[in-house]
Structure formats: structure tokens, C-alpha cells
């Protein structure tokens, strides 16, 4: 496509930014989107903080029930996966498409392992009878009800984001195959990397909040 | 040149069927018009509900409604007016249509996303309305969904909550699209302080949409989870705190008030220069006050909760901050008055609506100050005084501005002129009707008539009856506008590109605009409102090179 020009009163040409293929626009748009995500998780963190302030002891006690080792493993997995995802964008930029594909695949695989471990953890709680609305949980004290209420909501919401991440990565792989993402055209790839960074960042905050205060 | 009515871009390339061409169109102008048709249909439904309420309230005692039906009616009315109509209203309709035109752009930054937000909106409407016909009745919580009642009630709250959630998503996407468009697609030369003021209004609004809506979104989601799974975050029996719900709800919903009003202010700032034929007074002050209203607006939510249990210090702080918002708002109003001062005012219909709205909004704003003060609010809280106050700001203020804007841009959108005579009569009916409808309610509320009741003490009869007559007047005024617009479409004269002698970019292209707005993007190195002897100073030739 030819670059459109606007001419000022002196007849000088000035390039017009078009909405097609506006790299800066796509990047800005994604940052703004991440702000909305931050506001959403921020609200939940705020709720967590308020109830922690009110029920510190039962929060610490309930936190002790969670498995730090499983949670910690998941943290490491996510850390490594942001690294591979970031690396994949770099590789693509350098034209090493095959390496990029492998790295995206590896990231998606780690995301799936993360989800698997998460499922094991949830299952452990649920088999102890602890899930929202259960008789066992409702018989516990209020701080514990709130702790586990928030635990399931926040890790659940985070889990949904991980699932979305896997979907996005699969889409990226398809786009690379069909030429929608090329070394000279990486904006989708960059935004997905940014998204994954965000998902990992949220977990980095969630992990100490839920798992470490009882240690 | 064929207009956007004749050709369009769609999500799926070239479609033959004209209906599909609309449904799948990614042209911002068509999307704006689709919003407009749907939103005004909903608006009139909600007005219908309001008239039914007013009829029930015409005399004390039960007339023809069950109390529960009344609860559902005011919830339907409130939810529709707020979530489906006025919050998304001006940005989604006029904003979508005009933003790229006023910026000198071919479209918004993400045309497909724009269409997707429209579909989300439709989905929200369907979910919201569905509970009307699925047999369980509409929600009965009021539009605020206060916990724990919204957790306990048997009425159909779930679909209404999900509707509000999805509408929030749609609103976020629109806001995001606008922010990026404004940052990226301004015509070359157009700095931020050369943008028309309507764009400033939309810009401030978009940031509120993006930063506040997620808060209410997740809050409503928690109520949904509360009802379905019983997680207990807001449920006092499980240790949750319902007052926290109020905090989170108003952290969104107070800024949402500015979400409604800022685009309206933007319209005022467009119409005034065009009908006084002068540069707007205090351009920078108006632009910056939009931004500061949006900013301070985040900090004042607590004034909705003086009676909900808050420390005295918190109440004093919130009260102080509330008064602070009045400052940038006052700045705007004085700038508008200064613009009119010694201007040669043309009292065409858009100008009438704008003048009416400034009057109504001033009444609404001043009564808002009495509510922002703690003492009076304790007395007036949840009385008709509050109902009158917010109808004065929203209906008398924002909607009057909105309707003024519709008249102003009607020639641009349709290419036709409407009948001035009819339009003026409609304004007169609406203005008189509006004040008859709501002014008595200040008094009724002041003397202690509580809101959200389907009945009242006989002492209040006279106020409600005057109000009932006013409601009929304004409703007929609104219907007359619809008729006027319809007749304009059928048999109006051709408008030409610039019937009002206005200066901003959209008036330099044909009416209705062609598909990609500008054959050539102009270079914009001039202020948006420059007049010389009553004529726009800046003129272009057909290739958008400046000739004057
Ligand atoms: C013809 C115009 C209108 C009439 C006759 C009307 C009438 C009413 C009435 C009778 C109530 C119930 C008062 C009560 O029982 O507490 C009400 C409530 C309300 N109205 Fe309107 N109204 C109109 C327009 C609007 C508009 C344009 C909006 C906003 C865009 C609006 C927003 C609301 C809200 C938010 C409530 C509170 C609902 C609740 O308590 O949950 N109304 N209106
Ligand atoms: Cu408020």
C-alpha cells in the first residue's frame, strides 16, 4: 500500500498514519487492555487485603493448608515459561522461525503443566470438602470462608487467563504457519508475549499471598 | 460521490444482502447508527416503564400495580436507562460516528473490534431483556444491585447481572478503541490542543471506561458467584461485608456519572461556537477541566454512602472532594457563558436544547452540592430529592445535550434538514414538561417522601400529580422529535456540507459522508473554532489543500 500524505499550506507533505497495520496503535491498544486487567485483579487484591486485615489469624491458618511445594513448582514453571515466550519473539525477530515455533510450543506445554498441577491442588482441597458453599467450609470460621472463597475465585480467574494464554499461543502457531506472523511483522507475537508476562506477574503476586503467609 | 449508505466494508468482504451489509459492517458510521437505532428503542421502552410508574403514582394508594411489579419496573427503568442507554450512549452513537470525522481519519483504529463491541452490546441487551419474558420477572434490586439483597432475592437477578457485565466489556472495548484512535489517528498537524472539544470529552470518558469499568465488572461477577456458588465475599452470614460491595460499586458508578456527562459537555462545546459564530472562550480550560473532572471523579464515591456506615473522617474527606469536582465543572459553565456573551446567538434548535440543558444541569449540579454535604444528605438520602437531582443532571442535562447534538449533526448524518418549527415545538414541550415533572419532586423529597415506593402519604398527592402531567408533556415532546426526524428523512431539504457554518473537519466533507470520510486527509495546523465575520476562517479545496 502506498503511504498517504497530507499537504500543509506551504505544500510540504506529511505522512498520514493509517489504521491498517498501525504497529504503534496495536501496541498501545494492548497496553490499555492490560490496564483493565490490572484494575480487575487489583480489585480482588484489595478485597484480599481488607479481609486479611480483619481476619489475619484465620488467614494464616488457612494458608498453612495449601501445598507450598506444588504452588512453588508452579511459580518456577511460569517463570521459565515467560522466559521461553520472550525468547521466541526475539528468535522470530532474528528470522529464526523454527526456533520461535519450538519455543512457543514449549511455553504452551508449560502452561498446560501449570494447569495440571493447579487441578491437582484444587482437587486436594475439594476432596477435603473445602470448596465454596460446602458444608465443611461453611462450618469453619469466617476468615477461613473468605480466604478460600478468594482463593478459588482468584486462582480460578488466573487459571482462565492461563487457558486463554494457551489458546493464544496455538493461534500464534497457526499464524506463523500461514504467514500472518513474520519476522518483519511481529506485533501479534509481541502482544501475546506481553499478555503472558502479565499472567505470570499476577501469579507472582498470588503465590506469596495465598501460599506463603502461613509458612 | 457515493455516501457510506451506498457502499461499505464488512467483516467478510463484499456482501450482497443489504441487511447483512449493515450487520457485518465495520464502518464506524454504520456501527454508530446501529447503536443509535437500538439504543433509542430501548430508551423509549424505559420511558414507557417510567410513564407506567408515574401513572401508578398519580394518586395515593394502589392503582393497578402490585408492589413487586413496581419494584421490577423501576429496576427495569433504571438498568435500561443507565447501563443500556446513557452510559454507552453518546460515545457509542455520536462518538462512533464523529470521532474519525473530527480527527481527520479514515476510521477508528480497530474497526473489527468496534463491530465486536456492538455485538457484545446486543448480547447484553438480549440477556438483560430476556428475564422479562422467561417468566420469573425482572430483577427487583434497583439498578445498584446492593448486596445482600441481590444475593437473597428470588427474582431473576442473574441474567441482569450478566448483562451488566457484558455491557461493561463492550464499553471497555469502545473506550480502548477511542483512546488508541485519538492517540494514533489525528490528522497530521493536529496536536492534542487542536482537537475539537467533543473529542476531549470522549477522550476523558474513554479513560474512565477503561479504568473504572473492570472494577464494577469483577464486583458484579462476585455477586454472580455469590448467588451460584455461595463464595461469601459480600454475604454477612459468611463473614463477607456488604458495605464493601457498596464501595466497589460506587468506585465505578460515581465516575460513571462523568462517563455520562463528559461527552455531553463535549457536545455543548461544539454547538456553542457554531451558533454564536465565535471561538469558544477558554479552550484550554475546557479541555483540561474534562480531564480533571475525570480524575477527581474517582475520589468521591463515598458521598453515596454517608448513611451506610463510614467513619466521620472519611465522610468529611469525601464531602470535601465532592465539592472539589464542582470547580472544573464551574469553569466549564463560566466558559460557555463567556462564549455566549456578546456573541450573535442564533437560536436554532440545537442551541435551544443546549441552553435548556445548561439551565437544567445547573439546577441539578447545585442540588448535588446539597447532597454532597453530609448534614443535608443524612436528611435527604433515598428521598425523591435525590431522584429529582439525578434526573435533573442526567435527563435534563445529559439527554438534553444528547438531543441537541442529534439535531446539530442530523444534517451531517442524513444529508437532510429537519423542520425547524416542529423541532422547536418539541423542545418547548420537553423543556416545560421536564421541569414540571421533576421540580415538584425536590419539594416532595425535601418534605420526606422516600424513593422506590409504589405508594405515598396523601400529603404528597399534589406534587405527584403535577409531575404526572409533566411526564406526559415531555413524553409527547420526545415523540414529536422522532416524528420530526422521520419527516426530515422523507421530505427534508438537502442540507449541503455545512448548513450551520461550523468549523470542525466533519463539516468540510459532503453530507452524508463518503465511505472513507476523506478523499485526502487534510493537514490541520489551525485551531478548531476560528471565525472571521461569522464565516469559518479555514477553507479547503476538493483535494483538502488549504485555500484560506
Ligand atoms: C420521561 C422521562 C422519565 C421519567 C418520567 C422517569 C421517571 C422515573 C420514576 C417515576 C422513577 C422511580 C422513582 C422511585 O420510585 O424511586 C425513576 C427512577 C429512575 N430513573 Fe427515571 N424517568 C425518566 C427518565 C430517566 C432517564 C433518562 C434516566 C437516565 C438515563 C433515568 C434514570 C433513572 C434511575 C437510575 C432511576 C432509579 C431506579 C432505581 O431506583 O433503581 N430516568 N424514574
Ligand atoms: Cu456520586
From TrEMBL, chain A:
<dbReference type="InterPro" id="IPR000298">
    <property type="entry name" value="Cyt_c_oxidase-like_su3"/>
</dbReference>
<dbReference type="InterPro" id="IPR035973">
    <property type="entry name" value="Cyt_c_oxidase_su3-like_sf"/>
</dbReference>
<protein>
    <submittedName>
        <fullName>Cytochrome c oxidase subunit 3</fullName>
    </submittedName>
</protein>
<dbReference type="InterPro" id="IPR024791">
    <property type="entry name" value="Cyt_c/ubiquinol_Oxase_su3"/>
</dbReference>
<feature type="domain" description="Heme-copper oxidase subunit III family profile">
    <location>
        <begin position="1"/>
        <end position="215"/>
    </location>
</feature>
<feature type="transmembrane region" description="Helical">
    <location>
        <begin position="194"/>
        <end position="213"/>
    </location>
</feature>
<feature type="transmembrane region" description="Helical">
    <location>
        <begin position="68"/>
        <end position="87"/>
    </location>
</feature>
<keyword id="KW-0812">Transmembrane</keyword>
<keyword id="KW-1133">Transmembrane helix</keyword>
<comment type="similarity">
    <text>Belongs to the cytochrome c oxidase subunit 3 family.</text>
</comment>
<keyword id="KW-0472">Membrane</keyword>
<dbReference type="Pfam" id="PF00510">
    <property type="entry name" value="COX3"/>
</dbReference>
<feature type="transmembrane region" description="Helical">
    <location>
        <begin position="99"/>
        <end position="117"/>
    </location>
</feature>
<dbReference type="InterPro" id="IPR013833">
    <property type="entry name" value="Cyt_c_oxidase_su3_a-hlx"/>
</dbReference>
<feature type="transmembrane region" description="Helical">
    <location>
        <begin position="145"/>
        <end position="174"/>
    </location>
</feature>
<feature type="transmembrane region" description="Helical">
    <location>
        <begin position="28"/>
        <end position="53"/>
    </location>
</feature>
Automatic annotation (TrEMBL), chain B:
<keyword id="KW-0813">Transport</keyword>
<feature type="transmembrane region" description="Helical">
    <location>
        <begin position="159"/>
        <end position="185"/>
    </location>
</feature>
<protein>
    <submittedName>
        <fullName>Cbb3-type cytochrome c oxidase subunit I</fullName>
    </submittedName>
</protein>
<keyword id="KW-0472">Membrane</keyword>
<keyword id="KW-0812">Transmembrane</keyword>
<feature type="transmembrane region" description="Helical">
    <location>
        <begin position="346"/>
        <end position="369"/>
    </location>
</feature>
<keyword id="KW-0479">Metal-binding</keyword>
<feature type="transmembrane region" description="Helical">
    <location>
        <begin position="313"/>
        <end position="334"/>
    </location>
</feature>
<comment type="similarity">
    <text>Belongs to the heme-copper respiratory oxidase family.</text>
</comment>
<keyword id="KW-0408">Iron</keyword>
<feature type="transmembrane region" description="Helical">
    <location>
        <begin position="197"/>
        <end position="225"/>
    </location>
</feature>
<feature type="domain" description="Cytochrome oxidase subunit I profile">
    <location>
        <begin position="16"/>
        <end position="525"/>
    </location>
</feature>
<feature type="transmembrane region" description="Helical">
    <location>
        <begin position="389"/>
        <end position="410"/>
    </location>
</feature>
<feature type="transmembrane region" description="Helical">
    <location>
        <begin position="466"/>
        <end position="486"/>
    </location>
</feature>
<dbReference type="InterPro" id="IPR023616">
    <property type="entry name" value="Cyt_c_oxase-like_su1_dom"/>
</dbReference>
<keyword id="KW-0679">Respiratory chain</keyword>
<keyword id="KW-1133">Transmembrane helix</keyword>
<feature type="transmembrane region" description="Helical">
    <location>
        <begin position="280"/>
        <end position="301"/>
    </location>
</feature>
<dbReference type="InterPro" id="IPR000883">
    <property type="entry name" value="Cyt_C_Oxase_1"/>
</dbReference>
<feature type="transmembrane region" description="Helical">
    <location>
        <begin position="118"/>
        <end position="139"/>
    </location>
</feature>
<dbReference type="InterPro" id="IPR036927">
    <property type="entry name" value="Cyt_c_oxase-like_su1_sf"/>
</dbReference>
<keyword id="KW-0249">Electron transport</keyword>
Amino acid at each position: 500500500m502506498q503511504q498517504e500524505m497530507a499537504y500543509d499550506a506551504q505544500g510540504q507533505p506529511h505522512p498520514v498514519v493509517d489504521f491498517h497495520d498501525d504497529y504503534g496503535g496495536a501496541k498501545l491498544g494492548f497496553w490499555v487492555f492490560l490496564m483493565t486487567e490490572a484494575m480487575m485483579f487489583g480489585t480482588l487484591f484489595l478485597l484480599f487485603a481488607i479481609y486479611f486485615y480483619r481476619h489475619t489469624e484465620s488467614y494464616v491458618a488457612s494458608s498453612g493448608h495449601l501445598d507450598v511445594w506444588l504452588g512453588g513448582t508452579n511459580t518456577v514453571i511460569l517463570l521459565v515459561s515467560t522466559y521461553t515466550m520472550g525468547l521466541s519473539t526475539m528468535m522470530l525477530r532474528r528470522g529464526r522461525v523454527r526456533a520461535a515455533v519450538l519455543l512457543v510450543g514449549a511455553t504452551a506445554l508449560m502452561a498446560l503443566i501449570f494447569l495440571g498441577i493447579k487441578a491437582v491442588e484444587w482437587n486436594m482441597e475439594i476432596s477435603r470438602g473445602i470448596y465454596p458453599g460446602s458444608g465443611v467450609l461453611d462450618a469453619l470460621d469466617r476468615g477461613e470462608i473468605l480466604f478460600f472463597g478468594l482463593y478459588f475465585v482468584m486462582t480460578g480467574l488466573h487459571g482462565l487467563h492461563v487457558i486463554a494464554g494457551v489458546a493464544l499461543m496455538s493461534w500464534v502457531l497457526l499464524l506463523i504457519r500461514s504467514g500472518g506472523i513474520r519476522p518483519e511483522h511481529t506485533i501479534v507475537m509481541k502482544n501475546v508475549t506481553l499478555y503472558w508476562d502479565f499472567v505470570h506477574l499476577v501469579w507472582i503476586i498470588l503465590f506469596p499471598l495465598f501460599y506463603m503467609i502461613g509458612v | 460521490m457515493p455516501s457510506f449508505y451506498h457502499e461499505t466494508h464488512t467483516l467478510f468482504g463484499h456482501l450482497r444482502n443489504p441487511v447483512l451489509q449493515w450487520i457485518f459492517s465495520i464502518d464506524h458510521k454504520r456501527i454508530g447508527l446501529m447503536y443509535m437505532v437500538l439504543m433509542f428503542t430501548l430508551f423509549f421502552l424505559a420511558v414507557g416503564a417510567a410513564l407506567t410508574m408515574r401513572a401508578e403514582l398519580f394518586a395515593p394508594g394502589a392503582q393497578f400495580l402490585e408492589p413487586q411489579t413496581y419494584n421490577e419496573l423501576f429496576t427495569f427503568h433504571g438498568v435500561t436507562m443507565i447501563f443500556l442507554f446513557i452510559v454507552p450512549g453518546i460515545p457509542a452513537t455520536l462518538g462512533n460516528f464523529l470521532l474519525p470525522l473530527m480527527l481527520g481519519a479514515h476510521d477508528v483504529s480497530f474497526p473489527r473490534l468496534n463491530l465486536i463491541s456492538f455485538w457484545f452490546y446486543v448480547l447484553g441487551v438480549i440477556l438483560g431483556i430476556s428475564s422479562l419474558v422467561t417468566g420469573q420477572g425482572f430483577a427487583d434490586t434497583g439498578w445498584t444491585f446492593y448486596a445482600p439483597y441481590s444475593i437473597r432475592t428470588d427474582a431473576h437477578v442473574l441474567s441482569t447481572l450478566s448483562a451488566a457485565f457484558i455491557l461493561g466489556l463492550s464499553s471497555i472495548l469502545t473506550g480502548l478503541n477511542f483512546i488508541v484512535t485519538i492517540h494514533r489517528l489525528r490528522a497530521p498537524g493536529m496536536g492534542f490542543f487542536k482537537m475539537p472539544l467533543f473529542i476531549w470529552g470522549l477522550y476523558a470518558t474513554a479513560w474512565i471506561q477503561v479504568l473504572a469499568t473492570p472494577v464494577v465488572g469483577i464486583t458484579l461477577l462476585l455477586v454472580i458467584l455469590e448467588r451460584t456458588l455461595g463464595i461469601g465475599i459480600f454475604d454477612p452470614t459468611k463473614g463477607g461485608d456488604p458495605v464493601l460491595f457498596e464501595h466497589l460499586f460506587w468506585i465505578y458508578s460515581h465516575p460513571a456519572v462523568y462517563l455520562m456527562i463528559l461527552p455531553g459537555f463535549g457536545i455543548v462545546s461544539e454547538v456553542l461556537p457554531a451558533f454564536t459564530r465565535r471561538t469558544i472562550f477558554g479552550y484550554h480550560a475546557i479541555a483540561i477541566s474534562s480531564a480533571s473532572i475525570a480524575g477527581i471523579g474517582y475520589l468521591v464515591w463515598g458521598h453515596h454512602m454517608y448513611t451506610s456506615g463510614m467513619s466521620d473522617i472519611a465522610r468529611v474527606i469525601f464531602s470535601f472532594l465532592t465539592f472539589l469536582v464542582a470547580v472544573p465543572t464551574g469553569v466549564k459553565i463560566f466558559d460557555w457563558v463567556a462564549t455566549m456573551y456578546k456573541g450573535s446567538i442564533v437560536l436554532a434548535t440545537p442551541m435551544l436544547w443546549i441552553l435548556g440543558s445548561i439551565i437544567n444541569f445547573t439546577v441539578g449540579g447545585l442540588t448535588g452540592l446539597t447532597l454532597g454535604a453530609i448534614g443535608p444528605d443524612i436528611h435527604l438520602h433515598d428521598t425523591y430529592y435525590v431522584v429529582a437531582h439525578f434526573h435533573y443532571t442526567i435527563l435534563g442535562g445529559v439527554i438534553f445535550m444528547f438531543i441537541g447534538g442529534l439535531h446539530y449533526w442530523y444534517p451531517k448524518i442524513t444529508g437532510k434538514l429537519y423542520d425547524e418549527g416542529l423541532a422547536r415545538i418539541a423542545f418547548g414541550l420537553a423543556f416545560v414538561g421536564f421541569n414540571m415533572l421533576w421540580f415538584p419532586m425536590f419539594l416532595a423529597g425535601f418534605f420526606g417522601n422516600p424513593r422506590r415506593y409504589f405508594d405515598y402519604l396523601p400529603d404528597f398527592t399534589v406534587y405527584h400529580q403535577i409531575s404526572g402531567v409533566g411526564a406526559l408533556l415531555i413524553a409527547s415532546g420526545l415523540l414529536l422529535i422522532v416524528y420530526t426526524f422521520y419527516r426530515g428523512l422523507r421530505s427534508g431539504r438537502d442540507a449541503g456540507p455545512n448548513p450551520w457554518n461550523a468549523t470542525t473537519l466533519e463539516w468540510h466533507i459532503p453530507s452524508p459522508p463518503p465511505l472513507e470520510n476523506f478523499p485526502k486527509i487534510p493537514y490541520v495546523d489551525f485551531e478548531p473554532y476560528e471565525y472571521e465575520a461569522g464565516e469559518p476562517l479555514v477553507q479547503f479545496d476538493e483535494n483538502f489543500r488549504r485555500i484560506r
